[in-house]
UniProtKB/TrEMBL annotation:
InterPro entries: Prepilin_IV_endopep_pep. The keyword Oxidoreductase does not apply. It comes from Sedimentitalea xiamensis. Residues 15-116 form the Prepilin type IV endopeptidase peptidase domain. It is an enzyme of class 3 (hydrolase). Its EC number is 3.4.23.43. This is Prepilin peptidase. Gene3D superfamilies: 1.20.120.1220. The chain crosses the membrane at residues 6-24, 36-55, 61-82, 94-118, 138-158.
Amino acid sequence: MAVSASAALWFLPFVLPICFYVAFTDLREMRITNQAVLLLAAVFVVVGLFVLPLPTYGVRLLQMGVILVVGIVLNAAGAIGAGDAKFAAAAAPFIAIGDLRLLIAIFAANLLAAFVTHRLVKYTPLRRIAPDWTSWTAGWKFPMGLSLGGTLAIYLLLGSQFGA
């Protein structure tokens, strides 16, 4: 993996709770809060300054801006939700560009697993654990925060073990 194992390890304790919170709130309310997105971006801005070389840090900040612009366009086209676009932008600087192919594979597998699990639980007695979650009755909409947060968490966990 192209990501630095030490950087991934430093990011993990700050990023994991945010990822869990994003997954939970998106399941419960079908929204990713601005506070979570801003906190994730702030974690990178502060921690990244200490754990990444300055040129890498700058490139990763640029990634955030590029993904934000792409996300705004996709949101305007109705392809993704605004919270999903903002979370993807805030998560982008944690990803080493050399790991993009791996990240896409992690996201694809995570999305498939999350979608199937969500839809199966929706029609089982397990739904009674959280009967008032908005995601159960959102029709074809799916809480992408579950997959987006999970993907970032898995990527950093793998990076902490197998990173450069």
